[in-house]
Amino acid sequence: MNYFSSKKPYFIAGPCGAEDELQLQNIANSFKHIAIDMIRAGVWKPRSKPGHFEGRGEEALKWLSQLKNISSLPICIEVANKEQVELALKYGIDAIWIGARTTVNPFIVQEIADAVKGNQVGVLVKNPINPDIELWSGALERFSNAGIDNLAAIHRGFSSYDTMSIYRNKPNWAIPIELKRRYKDIPIFCDASHICGNRELIPMVSQRALDLDFDGLMIETHPNPDQALSDAKQQLTPDQLSQLLSHLIIRKPLSNSSADEIEQIRQILDSMDAEVVDLIGKRMELVAKLGKIKGDNNMPIYQADRWREIVKSRTNWGEKNGLDAEFMLNLFELIHDKSIKTQIHILNELAQDRPAEK
Ligand code: PEP
Ligand code: MN
Q1: Atom 9, ligand 1: which residue's CA is nearest?
Q2: Global pTM value
């Protein structure tokens, strides 16, 4: 039985980086009073730029192995190559996590999977920094093929160039939801700390993850977050962590009566979606007709005035139906984009049929 599924929600907490022995002892002592299931601590820290705290390496592994005298909680660390796996195993580390910068590289993931083969160690695979579900699922499959039973995924959000985002790494919830659909036996945890990048957002993102039926959370916790050597803004104190956990609403599995009601509503949603898809299909047929007329008359496909008018009227209609402007814009950008592509296709076909001009 996968031990990451032994309790739901499963909570992993601990500092971004193992900084000194006292810090780790402090954390392990405070977790005696908080319902934490596993301690995390980075001993090698992947930093974007040189000259920052890169972890204490093997020395930190010695401190972590001593924590067993204080707390019986299992311990996880990040590894990024096979030498680090060998050291982790040598010091009796219970689980390793594959960081976002490592999941992107199938060579390294395979090297780590080969190094853990035949060991009892647990493996947690973070999503890659880019929103690519195949890389994430490919990495999980490499560990599953290596015979790792205690396997879980960690959603830590996706890097983006959008400087206006409130998140450090955008959650793109549809991706972890799709991963969960594909691998129903692999638990998925949410690393709210790395999604948020600042501690104020952590409760909201943690609750969202539980509402979406995530199996657990990973939360960076430090005795003195503001003095942390890495990720200071996003770490909680043990007290704040305890507050967070006590305020979380833990969703229960469906009861029978609510299951019936949910099933009914889902059936209605299914038939509404079928109508929506039907209408969009019909809309595209008309768009194709329009494309032909434009092509026959040598008119441009895209007309800015028409697009402006579409955005204005659709956002107005949306407002009347309780749908915000951002949503309406996203929706119609998608539809409009497909319409343009459909018309380009038709124009290209017409151009091919037309006899070459002399
Ligand atoms: C971390 O967990 O501290 C870390 C470096 O994570 P990520 O790989 O998600 O950036
Ligand atoms: Mn961190």
Answers
A1: 100
A2: 0.78
